[in-house]
Amino acid sequence: KLQDCQSAIKLEPPSPPYFSEKVQLYNKAHEEASNSLMAIECRVCGDKASGFHYGVHACEGCKGFFRRTIRLKLIYDRCDLNCRIHKKSRNKCQYCRFQKCLAVGMSHNAIRFGRMPQAEKEKLLAEISSDIDQ
Fold first, then answer.
1. Tally of domains in the chain
2. For the Nuclear receptor domain, which residue ranges apply (predicted)?
3. Please, what's the b/e burial string for 71-103 (b: 16 or more CB within 10 A of its CB; e: otherwise)?
4. Distance (Å, rounded) from C-alpha 80 to C-alpha 95?
5. pTM, full prediction
6. Residue 82 sits in which domain range?
């Protein structure tokens, strides 16, 4: 039986040292790049930033909050408490969250068009230019 097991197991030849060194260097560089991207915090709440949105590094939550506030022209009840905005508390005070979005530099004029269909880009540009004219 031992002989049957040995014949069923096929060993791959070892990788040439040059190739394995290249793979190790690539893996190390890729890991370092991923870690540095993960280290970027949302400028609004401190959560992990998903990218550069509306002119600042922001998480998906703050990106969506800012987008909805601008698109729907929402006005929040005034708050004079200057609430601290953190990942766990960011949904408690919309007024202070929006003020922080503005304070860190979020702007609807800083939209980057990325993977957006041409028709949608044109519609958005028209909205922006009409907002500027008003």
1. 1
2. 39-113
3. eeeeeeeeeeeebebebeebeebbebbbbbbee
4. 9
5. 0.59
6. 51-133
